[in-house]
């Protein structure tokens, strides 16, 4: 059952940000995560602030520098089928298309997908876990087959978003606003590990809202894709995945950004695998070396050691696909 709360539908962003500055206020975009959190008792809300009338938070358009501006209220379905995204940023279109179900992609927004709360069954269930102010991460000695193999320090959630790894791999920036002003946060620095702050998943302060995401122009020779392994071919969150953006010139890798999904509390960049590709031909041999480097430092729990092999396999597969000349740039 949903708790009682007041509901506001501001007509301007300024009014929305003023309302969100009040204690207990939560933004309502697509609502696919917010309503679930309220129903599950993850947090309470004194007021739910609808963003649906804020046209300035919508839209997907090319910027003057050749990059991309994505409004936080753009839906995942819009992102997945937008011609500019599909042709120039395949990794992002594929990440959006891999999320949830068609119904949820038509309702869920990019801002909400990036900032959604963890899906850990202990966090969502009737447990006072460490992330909710308790003393224990119940996943450490409990049912942990879907939990983190990287970055779990006192809390072993995995970040549930499929678009966030793609945006990190693309070097995107989030524009964050509040009643006090606005700031820009690189997507790679938007997310917080449990060792830094066990109670929050992002650096967003109370009252702050992601209003848009800015993606730079694709680098010369860029190839990209998103690969996701899940229990079922539809609906499920990633068991393991990778957002790969690789630039090739004169037959050699000049730059690579590889970001894992489904295996860490944040979109997990693997610099060792990126270094393994640098200056090498993008082929089956370098893909295998990078895949092995991608799992260095993994610390699986009792029930999720299989994720190490999944990561190795999905990274090698993704890079092998990117090595073919037919891969979209």
Write a compact overview of the structure shown.
This protein has helices at residues 13-20, 34-40, 76-81, 83-88, 90-98, 102-107, 110-115, 121-124, 163-169, 187-190, 271-277, 284-294, 306-322; strands at residues 6-8, 25-28, 47-50, 60-62, 68-71, 173-178, 181-186, 209-215, 222-229, 240-249, 252-261, 268-269.
Structure write-up:
Helices cover about 30% and strands about 20% of the residues. By secondary structure, the protein is an alpha+beta fold. The protein is built from 13 helices and twelve strands. The chain is globular. It has helices at about 15-20, 35-40, 75-80, 85-90, 90-100, 100-105, 110-115, 120-125, 165-170, 185-190, 270-275, 285-295, 305-320, and strands at about 5-10, 25-30, 45-50, 60, 70, 175-180, 180-185, 210-215, 220-230, 240-250, 250-260, 270. The strands form three sheets. Strands 4-5-8-6-7 form a five-stranded antiparallel β-sheet. The protein has a four-stranded antiparallel β-sheet with strand order 9-10-11-12, with helices on both faces. Strands 1-3-2 form a three-stranded parallel β-sheet, covered by helices on one side. It folds into three domains: about 1-50, Uridine Diphospho-n-acetylenolpyruvylglucosamine Reductase, domain 2; about 60-115 and about 155-215, Uridine Diphospho-n-acetylenolpyruvylglucosamine Reductase, domain 3, CATH 3.30.465.10; about 220-320, CO dehydrogenase flavoprotein, C-terminal domain (Enolase-like, domain 1, 2-Layer Sandwich), CATH 3.30.390.50. A hairpin with a 6-residue loop joins β11 (about 250-260) and β12 (about 270).
